[in-house]
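just leaving the lab so this will be short. what follows is a protein written twice so to speak, once as letters and once as C-alpha cells for the fold. can you read through it and tell me how you think this chain folds. thanks a lot i owe you, the record is right below.

___
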Amino acid sequence: MTHLRRDRLCPLCDGIRLEPFHQDRVREYLRCGECGLVFVLPESFLSVEDEKAYYDLHQNDPADVAYRRFLSRLSVPLIQRLSPGASGLDFGSGPGPTLAQMLTESGFPTRNYDPIYAPDHQVWNHSYDFVAASEVVEHLQSPRAELERIWQILKPGGWLGIMTKRVWDLQAFTTWHYKNDPTHVIFFSEQTFVWLARHWSATLEIVGPDVVLLQKSSSSAPAPREQELKTS
C-alpha cells in the first residue's frame, strides 16, 4: 500500500479519515471512515476515450426483456412512490436509454442525460419530480459535485432513485466482480447512503441489495428557476 498523503480527501464527504482497504494487481482502494465510501485514486481513472470504448461494449437494447426486468428493480419501487403525471430525468442513460422509455411508458415523462451519449446540458435548466440513476454512480469521478447537481434540480418532495451494488465488507470485496470493471471508481456502502441522507436531510429507503430511494424534504427550498441554474 502506498503512504496516504495528508492532503487526500474523500471525494464524496471531504473526510480525512481515510484508510487503505484493498489492493489488487491493478488498483488500490481506500475507504473513508466518515461516510464509508470505497474509492480508487485519480491515478487509476481511465481517459475519456478509453472509458467510452469500454461503454461501447455494452449491449443495452430497449427491446431486451431481460434488461427491462433488471431495470425494473429500480423503476417499480420508484413508480410506486410517484404522483400521477410526475416527470423526471434518467441520469446516465447510456447508449440504450431504456429506463427513461420504461418510465415514460408508465405515464411518467422522463428525459435522458448522459455525458457521453446524450450530453444535453439543457436538462440542468429544469427541475424534476424524480431523478433515476441506474448503474451510474459507481462511475462518478467527482461524486460530490455530480450528486449535489442532481439534488439541486429535484423539486421539494422529489425522489432520487439509485441502483448500484453496495460494499458489504472486506472479505466480500476481495472477490467481488463489480470492482473489476475499470470504469467503476467508487463503491457505496449502506453507511454511505445513511451519510447522504443526513447530509441532505432526506428520507432514505433501502429497497433491496442494490436499490435505494432518497426523498427530498417537502420543506426544502424550491429548486432554482430555469434562468438561475447554470449549465455545464
